[in-house]
Design goal:
Number of strands: 10
CATH class of the largest domain: Alpha Beta
CATH topology of the largest domain: Alpha-Beta Plaits
Largest sheet: 7 strands, mixed
Order of helices and strands: EHEEEEEHEEHHEE
Strand content: 25-35%
Length: about 200
């Protein structure tokens, strides 16, 4: 299941919060991974990120509040920073997909698997050149399997950015990037260490 985490039109502190939330969710959910990142132009945090989970995380959809006195702008009075979590419907198949629009590279994988993962470039990184969308897949032992999974992820992400009848428009999933509803957050974190309090 794919989850988009976004800072919306929030300031840099919200981008820092997105990065911290990604790291917190990686620790909380086994089988979770970050598959796409849109870094903040300031060099701090992520404007948005897309994570994939092996389990149903529909309950995470909503707004997350982070209460933190900004270390980036110490004189700033605001302490409440919001992030949006939105589930992206996964594409069922790759379908019609032009690989000429993609730059595919391979890489060595770390982690379990013995010496095999260090000797063979089984990991796959795909850049969709028209949109700049980047996805990676390293969890499978086969390069072919990693490429198939990465392409499926890429199609899911691109589909979430398109209107049904207009490839140049953005659909609701991408509009969520700039629309964050403040109030009734599903989770609340506090402080520099990003401690969950509710």
């Amino acid at each position: 299941m794919l989850l988009q985490i976004s800072s919306g039109q929030g300031p840099v502190e919200c981008s820092v919060g997105v990065e911290k939330l990604c790291k917190a969710l990686l620790k909380e959910f086994a089988g979770s991974r970050i598959v796409s990142i849109n870094a903040d132009y300031s060099g701090h945090g992520y404007k948005s990120a897309i994570m994939e989970f092996d389990e149903d995380i529909s309950s995470l959809e909503g707004t997350v509040l982070w209460v933190w006195k900004s270390a980036i702008r110490p004189a700033h009075q605001r302490k409440n920073w919001y992030m949006d979590l939105h589930v992206i419907k996964e594409a069922e198949s790759i379908g019609e997909f032009d690989l000429n629009d993609c730059e595919v590279t391979t890489m060595h994988c770390g982690g379990k698997g013995g010496q095999h993962v260090n000797k063979v470039e089984t990991g796959v990184r795909i850049v969709h050149k028209p949109t700049g969308t980047v996805v990676t897949c390293t969890e499978e032992r086969s390069q072919v399997q990693n490429k198939q999974k990465a392409l499926k992820r890429l199609q899911s992400i691109l589909a979430a950015k398109q209107k049904d009848n207009n490839a140049d428009a953005l659909n609701n999933a991408w509009q969520k990037h700039t629309e964050i509803v403040r109030g009734n957050p599903i989770r609340k974190y506090e402080g520099e260490k990003f401690k969950r309090v509710s």
